[in-house]
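Q: what sequence does this backbone want?
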Protein backbone atom coordinates (compact mmCIF):
# COMPACT_ATOMS: atom_id res chain seq x y z
CA UNK A 1 0.00 0.00 0.00
CA UNK A 2 1.10 3.54 -0.68
CA UNK A 3 1.60 5.65 2.46
CA UNK A 4 1.70 9.45 2.45
CA UNK A 5 3.40 12.02 4.66
CA UNK A 6 2.35 12.05 8.30
CA UNK A 7 0.81 15.23 9.71
CA UNK A 8 1.07 15.61 13.48
CA UNK A 9 -1.02 17.81 15.73
CA UNK A 10 -1.07 17.71 19.55
CA UNK A 11 -3.30 14.68 20.12
CA UNK A 12 -3.65 13.27 16.62
CA UNK A 13 -1.42 12.20 13.74
CA UNK A 14 -2.89 11.61 10.32
CA UNK A 15 -1.66 9.92 7.18
CA UNK A 16 -3.03 8.01 4.21
CA UNK A 17 -2.49 4.37 3.40
CA UNK A 18 -3.91 3.37 0.04
CA UNK A 19 -7.34 4.98 -0.10
CA UNK A 20 -7.72 5.10 3.67
CA UNK A 21 -7.17 7.96 6.11
CA UNK A 22 -5.53 6.89 9.38
CA UNK A 23 -5.98 9.11 12.42
CA UNK A 24 -3.80 8.04 15.33
CA UNK A 25 -5.03 9.45 18.64
CA UNK A 26 -2.52 9.62 21.47
CA UNK A 27 -2.38 10.75 25.07
CA UNK A 28 -5.37 11.68 27.19
CA UNK A 29 -8.46 12.23 25.05
CA UNK A 30 -10.51 14.57 27.21
CA UNK A 31 -12.46 17.74 26.41
CA UNK A 32 -9.33 19.78 25.65
CA UNK A 33 -8.00 17.11 23.29
CA UNK A 34 -11.44 16.67 21.69
CA UNK A 35 -11.56 20.36 20.78
CA UNK A 36 -8.26 19.98 18.96
CA UNK A 37 -9.08 16.65 17.30
CA UNK A 38 -12.61 17.44 16.07
CA UNK A 39 -11.67 19.68 13.09
CA UNK A 40 -9.20 17.07 11.81
CA UNK A 41 -11.70 14.27 12.35
CA UNK A 42 -14.40 16.28 10.57
CA UNK A 43 -12.07 16.87 7.62
CA UNK A 44 -11.28 13.16 7.39
CA UNK A 45 -14.97 12.18 7.51
CA UNK A 46 -16.34 14.88 5.20
CA UNK A 47 -16.15 13.09 1.86
CA UNK A 48 -18.68 10.55 0.60
CA UNK A 49 -17.53 6.92 0.79
CA UNK A 50 -14.50 7.86 2.89
CA UNK A 51 -12.54 5.09 4.60
CA UNK A 52 -11.21 6.06 8.00
CA UNK A 53 -9.22 4.09 10.57
CA UNK A 54 -8.85 5.56 14.04
CA UNK A 55 -5.78 4.07 15.71
CA UNK A 56 -6.35 4.12 19.46
CA UNK A 57 -3.17 2.27 20.46
CA UNK A 58 -1.58 5.43 21.88
CA UNK A 59 -4.56 6.48 24.01
CA UNK A 60 -3.87 6.62 27.76
CA UNK A 61 -7.30 7.90 28.78
CA UNK A 62 -10.63 8.45 27.04
CA UNK A 63 -13.62 10.22 28.62
CA UNK A 64 -17.10 11.11 27.39
CA UNK A 65 -15.63 13.77 25.10
CA UNK A 66 -13.55 11.10 23.39
CA UNK A 67 -16.58 8.82 23.06
CA UNK A 68 -18.47 11.74 21.52
CA UNK A 69 -15.71 12.15 18.90
CA UNK A 70 -15.96 8.48 17.97
CA UNK A 71 -19.76 8.63 17.74
CA UNK A 72 -19.60 11.81 15.65
CA UNK A 73 -17.12 10.19 13.27
CA UNK A 74 -19.34 7.10 12.97
CA UNK A 75 -22.40 9.21 12.17
CA UNK A 76 -20.58 11.29 9.54
CA UNK A 77 -19.02 8.25 7.87
CA UNK A 78 -22.29 6.29 7.90
CA UNK A 79 -24.21 9.22 6.38
CA UNK A 80 -21.66 9.31 3.56
CA UNK A 81 -21.81 5.54 2.95
CA UNK A 82 -18.20 5.21 4.07
CA UNK A 83 -16.35 2.96 6.48
CA UNK A 84 -14.94 3.60 9.96
CA UNK A 85 -12.75 1.11 11.80
CA UNK A 86 -11.30 1.49 15.31
CA UNK A 87 -7.85 -0.07 15.63
CA UNK A 88 -5.89 -1.38 18.58
CA UNK A 89 -7.83 0.11 21.49
CA UNK A 90 -6.16 -0.44 24.86
CA UNK A 91 -8.05 -2.64 27.36
CA UNK A 92 -9.43 0.37 29.24
CA UNK A 93 -10.98 1.78 26.05
CA UNK A 94 -12.44 -1.62 25.13
CA UNK A 95 -13.93 -1.77 28.63
CA UNK A 96 -15.43 1.72 28.22
CA UNK A 97 -16.94 0.84 24.83
CA UNK A 98 -18.52 -2.27 26.38
CA UNK A 99 -19.73 -0.41 29.47
CA UNK A 100 -21.49 2.20 27.32
CA UNK A 101 -22.73 -0.49 24.91
CA UNK A 102 -21.00 1.24 22.03
CA UNK A 103 -18.87 -1.79 21.20
CA UNK A 104 -21.62 -3.08 18.89
CA UNK A 105 -21.78 0.24 17.04
CA UNK A 106 -18.20 0.13 15.77
CA UNK A 107 -15.95 -2.24 13.90
CA UNK A 108 -13.14 -2.70 16.44
CA UNK A 109 -10.04 -4.68 15.52
CA UNK A 110 -7.03 -5.53 17.68
CA UNK A 111 -4.29 -4.24 15.35
CA UNK A 112 -3.74 -1.43 12.89
CA UNK A 113 -2.78 -3.92 10.17
CA UNK A 114 -6.09 -5.78 10.58
CA UNK A 115 -7.99 -2.48 10.54
CA UNK A 116 -6.25 -1.39 7.34
CA UNK A 117 -7.07 -4.72 5.67
CA UNK A 118 -10.71 -4.36 6.76
CA UNK A 119 -10.84 -0.75 5.52
CA UNK A 120 -9.60 -1.90 2.12
CA UNK A 121 -12.51 -4.36 1.82
CA UNK A 122 -16.21 -3.88 1.04
CA UNK A 123 -18.28 -1.46 3.11
CA UNK A 124 -20.59 -3.24 5.59
CA UNK A 125 -22.11 -2.18 8.89
CA UNK A 126 -20.96 -3.71 12.20
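A:
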Amino acid sequence: MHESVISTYGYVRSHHVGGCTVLAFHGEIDIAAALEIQPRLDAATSLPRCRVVIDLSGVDFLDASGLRLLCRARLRVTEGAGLLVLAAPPPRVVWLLRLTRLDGCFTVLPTLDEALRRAAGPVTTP
